[in-house]
Amino acid sequence: MSKTNFDALLDAGVHFGHLKRKWNPNMAPYIFMEKNGIHIIDLHKTIVLLDQAAAAAKQIAKSGKKILFVATKKQAKEIVAERVQKTGMPYATERWPGGMLTNFATIRKAVRKMATIDKLLNDDAYNNLSKRERLQISRERAKLEKNFGSIADLSRLPSALFVVDVVKESIAVSEAKKLNIPVFAMVDTNSDPRDIDFVIPANDDAAKSIALVMDVICASIDEGLAERKLERDKKPEDQTKAEKAVVDVDDELESEVED
Concatenated DSSP letters for 98-139? Predict the structure, then answer.
């Protein structure tokens, strides 16, 4: 059964594209018509493609892998952060630091620095520092939290990227493609869908449109995580321990590579 329906998409304004003069010709297959100089997205295609994307996201979550959500535009960041945070998936809504994917080891060092500062804050030696030094440390910790706090649990490259606004997040999409990381994206009529593996034709500017798509995707992720937990609970204890040992070894190897 479809995760959503035509009326819900219509009510959320998912069908409203950009002005005709701003269109990207590669979006032609997803455009239903032009009305008053504005392109109208074909919602029947949106339903099919959104459901496909949701099914794929569910399988990624069920397999225990991570999807990194990227949405730095003003009208999307809070919506995405609120919904993705509940799923436990990583997200970037403040800014996209260049090299987030292609220079992942450096990003991980910044994340580990947060952990180092946290240990210092709980150490008696911290109280012996001058007021100025403590202020500098707290400011650095706050800056790191703002930029990397939402990806603190991302210990290895994500298995997929989810982007709101392909044009705005072009650098993120480019990095993902270089590393052959699949990209899910809300693609408006002014965007080029050719580099996107899971195209979701949709209005990427309206808050209601973004919220609806995120609700569908995050609900599917929650389903995948729930099914994964159910399957793991059914597995024999020795098999579960063996899987955990493999994960621990992978983490150790990755840590050695980063160092």
Answer: TTTTTTHHHHHHHHHHHHHHHHHHTSHHHHTS-HHHHHHHHH
Pick from 82, 46, 60: nearest CA to 213? 46
Please give the Cα distance from 88 to 45 (Å, whole number).
29
Stretch(es) of the chain classified as CATH 3.40.50.10490: 6-98+157-258
Q: Which residues of the chain have pLDDT under 50?
A: 1, 257
- Answer yes or no: are the C-beta atoms of 91 and 68 closer than 8 Å: yes
Residues whose CB is less than 8 angstroms from the CB of residue 116 and which lie 6 or more positions away in sequence, other chains included: none
Q: What's phi and psi for 199, nearest 5 deg? A: -80, 130
- pLDDT per residue as tens digits for the range 203-236: 999 999 999 999 999 999 999 999 999 998 887 6
Report the CATH number of the 6-98+157-258 domain: 3.40.50.10490
- The CATH class for the domain spanning 102-155 reads mainly alpha
Identify the bridge partners of residue 28 per DSSP, sorted by sequence position: none
Q: At residue 142, what are phi and psi to the nearest 5 degrees?
A: -65, -40
